[in-house]
Amino acid sequence: MSAVEEREPAPAASSAAAGGGVAAAAVMVASGPSEPLHPVQAQELNHPELEEGPSSKKRARLEAGSAAGAKAGVEHKLEERLYSVLCCTVCLDLPKASVYQCTNGHLMCAGCFIHLLADARLKEEQATCPNCRCEISKSLCCRNLAVEKAVSELPSECGFCLKQFPRSILERHQKEDCQDRVTLCKYKRIGCPWQGPFHELTAHEGECGHPTKTGNELMEILDEMDQNHKKEMQLYNSIFNLLSFEKIGYTEVQFRPYRTDDFITRLYYETPRFTVLNQTWVLKARVNDSERNPNLSCKRTLSFQLILKSKVNSPMECSFLLLKGPYDDVKINPVIYHFAFTNENNETDYMPLPIIDSVECNKLLAAKNINLRLFIFQIQK
Fold first, then answer.
1. For the residues of 304-369, what is the DSSP string, one character each?
2. Where would I find the beta strands (DSSP E) of 131-246?
3. For a 10 Å CB count at each end of the chain, is N or C smaller?
4. CA nearest neighbour of 288 among 267, 270, 302
5. Is 134:128 a contact under the CB 8 Å cutoff?
C-alpha cells in the first residue's frame, strides 16, 4: 500500500458514486443481446479457457465458425474495450494497485497521481488533471474502488509462461504455481550461480556439481560470501555501537517547502529550529542539488544539511542519521554521517538523503510537508 493510500483515505460517498457509473457501464456492455443463449453458448461462457485470452483452442473454434467461438470473440472485444475505458489517463496503462479520480471522474494510477503532485510542487503550480485541467490534490481526489475491482478481474499475461490469468491471482501464480518462474538452486548457499525455470530445477539439482566439491573449494566460496555479508552487517553494527554512547538525542523534524528570492526561484526545504542535546539545530534540504529545472528530470533526489545554531565552547563531534517518520511509508536506507561542529564551522555539506529510488522521492515531494526522524549521537573525548 502506498503512502498516499494511508495518509488520505478515500471518501466513501465520492468513490462509490464515481465507481458506480463505471461498474454500471461495464454491466450494460457485458450483458449483450437480450435473446436467451443456446445451451452450448451458455456452457462456453463458463469455460475457464475464455479467461485465458486467445488460446490455440479458442482460435480453432473461431476459425470453425461455431457459435461458441463467435461468442468467445465478442468476449475478447469486450476485454479490449474495458482496457481502454479503465486505463490510467496519464500512462495509458491499467493500474496495478490503487486508482484515483479527479472531480470529473478521470482515472489515474497511484504512481502517476503522486508524480503529478510532485511535479506541481517543483514548478510552484497547482496540480491539474491532464484530461480536463481541473485541480487535483490529496483532498480533492479519491480512490475508485469499483474500477480497482474491475481491473483485478481483467486477464493479464504471466511474464514467465505467457498464459493469461485474472490480475487478482496473477501475483500468486507467478510466485508459487508457474512452472516457468525463475528459481535458484538449493546449493546457492555454497556458491551455485544457477537460475532457471522451475520445471528444470529438479534436473539441475540432480546434476549440480557443487555438492561434490572438495572442502578447500567450498571454503574459498564461503569465505567470499562471508566478506559480502560482513559489509552488509557493518552498518548495523555501527548503529548498535552508537546506542552505547552517553549522549543520544532524537526528534521528529518537519521540512517545509520554500522558494529562493533569486530571479530564477528554486525550491528548498527547511525545518523550524529544534533542540537536541541542549543545542539548537536546523535542517535544510534541496531537490536534485538545486539544478535549474528538476521538474524536467525523471530522476529525483533529495539532499540535506544539518546546521548548529547554538554557540559551543569546544568542538562538538557528532554522528547523526535521518530515518523515515512514524507516520510515513517512504523507504529510506539508514546511513550514518559524522561531523565536528565548531562556532566557525557549524554547517555540514549537503549529503544525499538515502531514498531508494525516484518513486519514493516523489512520495515526499507530493506531500505538503516532509516528516522525518533525526538521531544525533555526541562522541565524548
1. EEEEE-S--SS-EEEEEEEEE-TT----B----EEEEE-SS--BPPPEE--BSSHHHHHHHHHSSS
2. 142-143, 155-157, 164-166, 182-184, 195-197
3. C
4. 302
5. yes
Beta strands in 72-217 (DSSP E): 99-101, 107-109, 142-143, 155-157, 164-166, 182-184, 195-197
From the list 320, 245, 258, the residue with the least C-alpha distance to 287 is 258
Alpha carbons 92 and 177: distance in angstroms, whole number: 29
Backbone angles phi, psi at 306, to 5 degrees: -100, 130
The residue among 233, 235, 289 whose CA lies nearest residue 266 is 289
Helix (H, G, I), strand (E, B) or coil at 60: helix
C-alpha cell at 99: 486508482
- Tell me 177's DSSP state: I
Rounded to 5°, the CA angle 38-39-40 comes to 90
First to last CA, the chain: 46
The residue type found at 222 is L
For 33, phi then psi, to 5°, come to -70, 155
Closest listed residue to residue 206, CA positions, set 187, 228, 220: 187
Which residue in the block uniquely carries the three cell numbers 534540504?
285
Strands 267-270 and 279-287: antiparallel
User: DSSP class of residue 128?
Assistant: B
User: 202-215 burial by CB neighbour count: b if 16+ within 10 A, else e?
Assistant: eebeeeeebeebee
d(CA 131, CA 113): 13
For each successive 10 residues of the chain (381 residues), what is the average pLDDT? 42 42 40 40 38 44 44 62 87 88 93 91 89 92 91 86 85 88 87 88 87 81 80 80 88 90 83 94 90 80 94 92 83 90 94 88 86 91 65
Q: What pLDDT sits at residue 22?
A: 42
